[in-house]
Amino acid sequence: MSPQRRRLLLGTVLLGSSALPAVAALQSVAALQSVAIQVWKDPNCGCCKDWIVHLQQNGFTASVIDQGNGAMRSRLGMPQKHGSCHTALVQGYVIEGHVPAADIRRLLKEKPKALGLAVPGMPIGSPGMDGPAYGGQRDPYKVLLIQKDGSVEVFNSYS
């Protein structure tokens, strides 16, 4: 967020006539702050690039490592059976595949004791797999919460 935008929002908070609007405005400022995320991907993968654009449009700042993701996925402990074309790390959580930014934000807010989130494979309609080339097609998919012991539960589902 630019310093001018932050000052404008903070000025709105300070000029508010009650505490409730001020709290809401402060929460809006916090929500707009960028979250750093590291992404490992193949340098030639277009859907990975599109997923990164989705993250950036939703307040994430991505550092991209274009050397593939298989070794990093293994090193970070994400089971291969939940693999996809890119692996990310954000605030200690592993993010595998086309996980929507809103689900990553929810993970960071709730802070479960878990390894991270995964969208196995490359479901059409998920972020990065939703461009014009797919003709509006949408496959149902699940965002999985992967526990450190390898167990899994559904974190969110999309249809």
Features of the shown structure:
single chain, 159 residues, alpha/beta, Glutaredoxin, 2 domains, seven-stranded mixed β-sheet, 5 helices, 7 strands, 25% strand, globular, disordered N terminus, TAT_signal, plasmid
Give the low-pLDDT segments: 2-30
Distance between the termini: 33 Å
Largest sheet: 7 strands, mixed
H/E topology pattern: HHEHEHEEHEEE
CATH hierarchy: architecture of the largest domain:
3-Layer(aba) Sandwich
Number of separate domains: 2
CATH superfamily of the largest domain: Glutaredoxin
Strand content: 25-35%
- Helices, by number, come to 5
CATH fold naming of the largest domain: Glutaredoxin
Query: What is the radius of gyration?
Result: 17 Å
Mean pLDDT: 85
Which CATH class of the largest domain is shown? Answer: Alpha Beta
Strand order of the largest sheet: 2-1-3-4-5-6-7
Signal peptide: 1-24
Protein name: DUF411 domain-containing protein
Keywords: Plasmid, Signal
